[in-house]
Design brief:
With 487 residues, the chain is of the alpha/beta class. The chain is built from 16 helices and 14 strands. The strands form 3 sheets. The protein has a 7-stranded mixed β-sheet with strand order 9-10-11-8-7-12-13, with helices on both faces. It has a 5-stranded mixed β-sheet with strand order 4-3-2-5-6, with helices on both faces. The radius of gyration is 29 Å and the shape is flat.
């Protein structure tokens, strides 16, 4: 006898074959129904979010708002009249160059972080693109998962949607067109393998030209609960050694203004493995720990080869590595794997150079956007830094987006249609003449642009000249004066 999941899976595959979810009106109706059911269940949803994460009501309401906003955006981007016009482009002799088609069957494994948002955003993007969807829950967030298991089947058509607590078996994987595993930083087809690569790391750069106050406040906020739970919270901070002492002092000052929440101790209790590694590295003299009378610590790396510099950090810590300057920072990090995101605190010209040299899927200058972190009612000094909340990392094999974290383009594929004939080749007698025709000049004017390093060289030469030229002049004057005595 077939299991419930097997029966549901066969129904979904049948719907994919029929193209049931591809009709724009059908997609609109599904998203409208989902939005309605979520609105009607707003109170139990927010209560479940609060229960799972022991946070204040504002966190739950913000997560609910952003999830509902993602539903609204997907719904409003479906234009029935426009889609009908594009469908008949070819009939009326026009190319449909921007046409996209659904992928088929999409499976979603949501992240525990901001669980509700992590389920809803990829779900609505996949529905918008015309896919059938399976959501696989693991009960890592019991209250939220319970609510989702109850309300989503009521909102969506069972012929194109299924939610389960069972792990998708190996026998089904080759029939799934796209897997969204939020425990990784990519979305990929099962044919490429379901085993997730290591989660991407994030990094901050504080150059000598940067604003220490802004950097300290922003980074400290990003490394306190619940923000350090975000995959975008900075794992390593490279600080110019000239600014190190001031930066450490300011970070500790800001951290003392954050009261540890009731969930802070729970988060710290899960950090035993990191604490063990930290104790070992401290015993070997690889790190120095700076802290005040709270759980927040700044770990200064003394030995660059320390294992700590390669870890994905989770906890109320700032992992700090002093550098001698921009070139040192770039040389240190350029050979390493591409970062999930990087944050640069420096002048515009220095930021430009660092951003160009450090491989990163997204780079932010003089900011860590709150949309990448989590919301909690923090003290006033952080009120402008933590207004929003999102969950999983933006897929690294697509363009980086803040909100919604997933878009319909991630769940569709280009399928252009052409009816107009392409340009014809020149006459045979003209082929070589045209092939050998010289290209237009680039239009670059003669001149010498002064870049970042050129500025440094000129500044050094000027400083040297201000010292050397007066000495040469004074020496020449003395030599002439001395020579005149013998004339």
């Amino acid at each position: 006898m077939a299991s419930d999941f097997q029966t549901a899976f066969e129904v979904l595959r049948g719907s994919v074959t029929e193209g049931r979810a591809e009709n724009v009106r059908y997609r609109q109706n599904e998203l409208y129904s989902l939005h309605l059911v979520l609105r009607e269940n707003a109170e139990p949803i927010c209560e479940a979010i609060t229960k799972d994460y022991a946070g204040p009501t504002v966190k739950a309401e913000t997560e609910f708002f952003l999830a509902m906003d993602a539903v609204r955006i997907s719904y409003e981007r479906l234009d029935f009249d426009k889609s009908m016009a594009e469908e008949y482009f070819v009939k009326f002799g026009k190319d449909n160059r921007e046409r996209r088609a659904s992928l088929g069957l999409v499976a979603i494994r949501p992240l525990k972080h901001n669980r509700f948002y992590s389920v809803i955003t990829p779900l609505v993007a996949a529905l918008q693109a015309g896919n059938c969807v399976i959501v696989e829950l693991s009960h890592s967030s019991p209250a939220v998962d319970g609510v989702l298991l109850d309300i989503l089947p009521k909102a969506l058509d069972r012929d194109t949607f299924h939610i389960t607590t069972d792990k998708i078996g190996e026998q089904y994987k080759n029939q799934i067109n796209l897997l969204v595993d939020q425990n990784t930083s990519e979305i990929s087809s099962p044919a490429k393998g379901l085993q997730p690569p290591p989660q991407g790391r994030t990094m901050c750069f504080l150059d000598r030209t940067g604003d220490v106050e802004l950097a300290a406040k922003t980074i400290t906020s990003a490394r306190t609960l619940p923000n350090f739970l975000s995959p975008y919270s900075p794992d390593l901070v490279l600080v110019n050694e000239y600014l190190k002492e001031n930066f450490i002092a300011r970070c500790l000052d800001f951290a003392t203004q954050v009261e540890p929440s009731c969930s802070s101790k729970a988060a710290l209790s899960d950090d035993l493995e990191f604490q063990k590694i930290l104790q070992q590295t401290e015993a070997r003299g690889e790190v120095a720990i700076h802290k005040r009378n709270n759980d927040f610590s700044i770990i200064e790396v003394k030995i660059r080869s320390s294992k700590l510099t390669t870890l994905k950090l989770e906890g109320p810590y700032i992992l700090l590595l002093p550098t001698t300057g921009i070139v040192d920072s770039v040389t240190l990090q350029r050979p390493l794997p591409t970062l999930l995101s990087s944050y640069i605190f420096a002048s515009p010209s220095a930021s430009k150079f660092i951003a160009e040299q450090i491989p990163s899927h997204a780079t932010y200058i003089n900011q860590v956007p709150p949309q990448l972190l989590s919301i909690l009612a923090l003290p006033t000094i952080f009120s402008k830094l933590t207004r929003a909340s999102v969950g999983p990392p933006s897929p690294t094999n697509h363009s980086h987006t803040l909100h919604p974290r997933f878009t319909s383009d991630m769940f569709s594929t280009p399928r252009p249609q052409f009816i107009t004939p392409p340009a014809t080749l020149p006459a045979p007698s003209k082929l070589m003449e045209i092939a050998l025709k010289q290209l237009k000049p680039t239009g670059q004017r003669p001149g010498h642009a002064i870049g970042f390093f050129e500025q440094g060289i000129l500044l050094g030469l000027t400083s040297t000249a201000l010292v050397v030229l007066p000495l040469i002049g004074w020496g020449a004057f003395k030599a002439v004066k001395f020579g005149l005595r013998y004339l």
